[in-house]
Write a structure and sequence with these properties.
The structure is a single chain. The chain has 371 residues and is an alpha+beta fold. The strands form three sheets. Strands 1, 3, 5, 6 and 7 form a five-stranded mixed sheet that branches. Strands 2-8 form a two-stranded antiparallel ribbon. The N and C termini lie far apart (69 Å). Bound molecules: iron/sulfur cluster. Iron/sulfur cluster binds next to helix 9 and helix 12.
């Protein structure tokens, strides 16, 4: 598939490995064989830039230095230390997997591929990355960076994420793997994709394997891989209510208690999707039906904000609702408005909270009452 002559593959591998030894970035998870640390870095790096991950990674390890500490922690505490990184299902799965590792694997990250894959949140890529880097197990990784490098080396056209193409790329990656140095090999290919064979303007002049790259030879380096068809962005309006009692306390809920499913099970203000409807009327109805809050006056609009989640472009429309007392809702939290960052909340909830705190000094003094 990649059309590298078999006799030259050993040289290709040597070039990659010596380039990696010389040019790799100095990152906090480099140079460790500790599977917990490698696993944590791989999970944090999913969909997230290295620069954003570094401070979270270091802080997370200070608080949860090993898998036992993570397994013992309360979910809220884990999520609070993940807040800001996004994609919170990663943190929930990490926590669940830590518990399984402690209870079912005596605190050791499993060495067997199938056992690793059985852990929550661990797919083929993460299993191969952790097992190869921690244990030098012979599994090649394939992620977007690696796929791009391989596609350019073989001058492959077509959608790399198409299942049949992805399977071929997995086979090619496995064939190319330097089995005597799996961990370094995998990191070398990922590093090449991240720093030299970048999506735009690859720096072919600095590439250790330029000699074998068909895309470079054919003048296609910048054109491959072929652009994927983008999923169309959809516009959503999300209305949220910042209920505020005379003591400055507000109400935070989960999705199942009247929040939005967009923010998974993070703590959030009562909210609902009001796209294409009368936002105020819909939010007032939501507060009345779910929380028993009957509006006596108009909802006070707060500064709107934008928030993007994958293909959704969300317009956040927060409203301040002063209440004589907060409704009692099973599972909800009453907390000072200025203190909500102590809980795991999404960036969207932070934006809403900022709009509310910026406004509270000038908010009109009317009350909604319990129905
Ligand atoms: Fe990527 Fe250029 Fe190297 Fe080919 S020569 S692998 S396109 S950086």
């Amino acid at each position: 598939m990649l059309k590298i002559p078999a006799a030259e593959i050993p040289k290709f591998r040597r070039r990659m490995l010596s380039w990696f030894a010389e040019c790799k970035r100095d990152l906090p998870w480099r140079g460790t064989r500790n599977p917990y640390r490698i696993w944590l870095s791989e999970i944090m790096l999913q969909q997230t830039r290295v620069a954003a991950v570094v401070p979270y990674y270091e802080k997370f390890l200070e608080i949860f230095p090993n898998v036992q500490a993570l397994a013992r922690a309360r979910t809220d505490r884990v999520l609070a230390n993940w807040a800001g990184l996004g994609y919170y299902s990663r943190a929930r799965n990490l926590h669940r997997a830590a518990k399984e590792i402690v209870t079912r694997h005596r605190g050791h990250f499993p060495r067997e591929y199938e056992a690793a894959m059985a852990l929550p949140g661990i797919g083929r890529y993460t299993a191969a990355a952790v097992l190869s880097i921690a244990y030098d197990a012979p599994y090649a990784v394939l992620d977007g960076n690696v796929a791009r490098v391989l596609a350019r080396i073989g001058a492959l056209h077509g959608d790399l994420r198409a299942p049949s193409m992805w399977r071929k790329l997995e086979a090619a990656a496995q064939e190319l793997l330097a089995r005597n140095a799996s961990g370094d090999w995998n990191q070398a290919v990922m590093e090449l994709g991240a720093t030299v064979c970048t999506p735009k303007s690859p720096r072919c002049g600095e590439c250790p394997v330029e000699k074998w790259c068909r895309a470079r030879k054919l003048g296609l380096a910048e054109k491959l891989p072929s652009a994927r068809k983008k999923r169309a962005t959809i516009e959503i309006t999300l209305a949220a209510a910042v209920l505020l009692d005379p003591r400055g306390r507000t109400l935070l809920v989960r999705h199942s208690e009247g929040g939005s499913e967009l923010f998974s099970r993070m703590w959030q203000f009562p909210a609902l999707d009001t796209t294409g409807t009368d936002t105020r009327a819909a939010l007032a109805g939501h507060l009345r039906e779910i929380f028993g809050v009957a509006m006596k006056g108009a909802l006070t609009p707060l500064a709107t904000a934008r928030h993007a989640v994958t293909f959704r472009n969300i317009r956040l429309e927060p409203y301040l609702v002063r209440v004589a007392r907060l409704p009692r809702v099973l599972g909800a939290r009453m907390i000072g408005l200025g203190q909500i960052r102590r809980l795991p909340i999404s960036n969207a909830t932070q934006k809403i909270a900022s709009a509310a705190t910026a406004h509270t000094g000038t908010a009109p003094r009317w009350c909604a009452q319990r129905a």
